[in-house]
Amino acid sequence: MAYNDSPPYSEPRQTNRPQTLPGEKIMAEVELVFLGTGGGRFATITQKRRTGGIRFLSKGLNMHLDPGPGALVYSLEAGLNPQRIMAVLVSHRHPDHYTNAEILIEAMTRGMLKKRGIVAAPHSVLFGNEETGPAISRYHQQIPEKVIEVKPGVVFHVGDTRIVATEARHTDLDAVGFRFETPEVGDIGYTSDTEYFEGVGKAYEGVRLLILCVMRPSGNPWMGHMTPEDAIKIVEKVKPEMAVATHFGMKMIFSGPNREVKLIKEKTGVPTLAASDGMRLRIGEKIRVERAKRKQRGLEEYLKRS
Prior knowledge:
The chain has helices at 41-46, 71-77, 95-98, 101-108, 123-127, 138-142, 228-238, 250-255, 257-268, 299-305; strands at residues 30-36, 51-58, 61-65, 87-89, 118-121, 146-149, 155-158, 161-167, 176-182, 186-190, 209-213, 242-246, 272-274, 280-283, 287-290. It is an alpha/beta fold.
């Protein structure tokens, strides 16, 4: 179903979108599968929202972004063969972003038997820091064809897609976001976990789709994370065709992501939606949204079971 309830605009938004000329074939599609939309310790522990990350798919692209707990199981449930993955990207060293990285690397390398694929992650994930060891073992780093240490400004490619690591400010000081520059459908931005800071939106200017990790509800800021008020400032700067909020913590879940995210759309005029587990975005000439049939458990059911 096409998401087309955006208000009329006096002029088209300037986004990095490949143009289709008369007589050319219709633009190819990139599909994003949200295998999890939860974030933070308690959303992860309870799986009130899943934490499997996001799968990027196109004719020449298959990569997994931030494979937290459940990434393998939810991939299989969604009919996504993990052995076809070309790259595993991890934005920072927190369990809701990296926990299934090693098993997906094993799948990508066909059981660690074939030197294949790319792993891209910051220093804390690959080497650890003063508080923790690496999140991906040296053993698992030996088999992929490339292991790339990312920091803001680092550029690499997965297939024909150019990927730029962007600045994030989080409790993991090595955290990054990503900008995906696809030849098929234009650019997609992913903030990862970050607090708002002056200039954060600049790295995403011109993207068609902006994915924001909005963990906290309005009026409940927390260091290193984003609220709808923070997201508004970024979306106003970037002005994408569509914005998607994801990575909801328990306070956000209890408050109601749809209600919270509605504020972003009202303040910016940009079509904005709250991601749901299993949701698929198909990005082509238009951005289409397909919601999974699986319903989220309600708060009352959660409280009965807790």
